[in-house]
Design goal:
single chain, 356 residues, alpha/beta, TIM Barrel, Non-ribosomal Peptide Synthetase Peptidyl Carrier Protein, Chain A, 2 domains, two-stranded antiparallel sheet
């Protein structure tokens, strides 16, 4: 068995190739920090709109969480999305100044309203604009901060779309991009059907020693290892599979070290992490907002519980810290074995890892 790649993005040492992807509405500071504590080597914050970043006032309490970074979560990247090259570059400057170690460009979001505003995956249809965004962003950010790109394999499966993908890929590396993450679905596919890992193999062969990360259908530790082994890419970015399951990173590391798959966390282990997640969320948002933010995470954590369907329903009803404590007391009192999440649950729920 060949050794796993040691991931490096430009001048930034990452190490383990198991990365937490940017997740719209999810990958805030608490989620990123818990992922790091459980074995993620590198995380990306939820995608930020360039116009919002440029206009944002840091002293506004409601928005300060977007740029919140703690000393113990480096290296961490900010993912940026927009339509205009000039505005994109200005947003990148702001993110670099905020202390992010890497700036990631979003050319992958398949959400309809995003495409309608000429953002995200729409740029795969216009290589000239996409590469102008890349060039301006690279030029605007200090040389020591790597710039990376997130792409899908094209708008659709036409030859024209394929040609545009490789035009952007090659042009981005020529402009100084340090790494590219490729999602194995097209923009048109959104989350329907399997991610085409064979395309990742082709991309990695095409670029040679340049750094390629992959994403798509990474809902278990074994899938993360399989993608690395089958495609030859340099790292994997775990998206929906990491929501409510930070243990996936340490499980993937164990498999990579030749160890058996660790058992899923027991109910008491799950309870302790959920409580810590809530504590971190309160630190960032305050109790009232944290209660609302945490409901969507509770629903995902429920997938590791043997009675996940009724527990998921219970999590939808919590409104405050006391509700959380009561729900945990009811469902996590006995330290029973947990279960590995069913990948089918993630596929049904969908979601957008690239885009806020």
């Amino acid at each position: 068995m060949s050794p796993l790649p040691h991931l490096r993005i430009g001048a930034v040492e990452i190490g383990s190739p198991f990365v937490q992807a940017a997740l719209s509405g999810y990958s805030d500071w608490p989620m990123r920090l818990l992922a790091r504590r459980h074995g993620a080597s590198y995380t990306l914050c939820e995608v930020l709109l360039d116009q919002f970043v440029v206009a944002m006032k840091e002293n506004r309490k409601r928005n300060k969480h977007f740029l919140h970074i703690s000393d113990d979560e480096h290296p961490v990247a900010a993912q940026l999305m927009g339509a205009e090259p000039e505005q994109f570059a200005a947003g990148a400057v702001r993110l670099a100044a905020a202390g992010f170690d890497v700036v990631d460009i979003n050319f992958g979001c398949p959400v309809k309203k995003v495409l309608g505003r000429c953002r995200g995956g729409f740029h795969l249809s216009q290589p000239e604009v996409a590469l102008e965004i890349v060039r301006r962003t690279r030029e605007s950010v200090p040389p020591h901060i790597p710039v990376t790109v997130k792409m899908r394999r094209g708008i659709d499966d036409t030859q024209e779309s394929r040609d545009r993908f490789f035009e952007i890929l090659d042009g981005a590396f020529a402009a100084g991009i340090a790494a590219v993450t490729v999602h194995g679905r097209t923009v048109e596919q959104r989350y329907i059907g399997p991610s085409r890992w064979s395309f990742l193999t082709e991309v990695k062969r095409h670029v040679g020693s340049r750094t390629i990360l992959g994403s798509g259908d990474l809902f278990s530790a074994q899938a993360c290892l399989d993608m690395l082994r089958e495609t030859g890419i340099d790292g994997v970015t775990i998206a929906r599979g990491a929501i409510g399951n930070p243990w996936i990173f340490q499980q993937a590391r164990a498999l990579a070290a030749g160890q058996p798959l660790p058992p899923p966390p027991s109910l008491h282990q799950q309870r302790d992490v959920i409580l810590e997640h809530f504590r971190l969320a309160m630190e960032l948002y305050g109790e009232q907002r944290a209660s609302a933010e945490m409901r969507k995470f509770g629903i995902k954590y429920a997938a590791l519980h043997p009675q996940h369907i009724p527990l998921r329903e219970a999590f939808t009803k919590v409104r405050c810290l006391e509700d959380w404590k009561a729900t945990l007391a009811q469902w996590y009192t006995e330290d029973l074995p947990g279960c590995h999440p069913d990948p089918a649950i993630h596929r049904v729920n969908g979601g957008c890892e690239e885009a806020a």
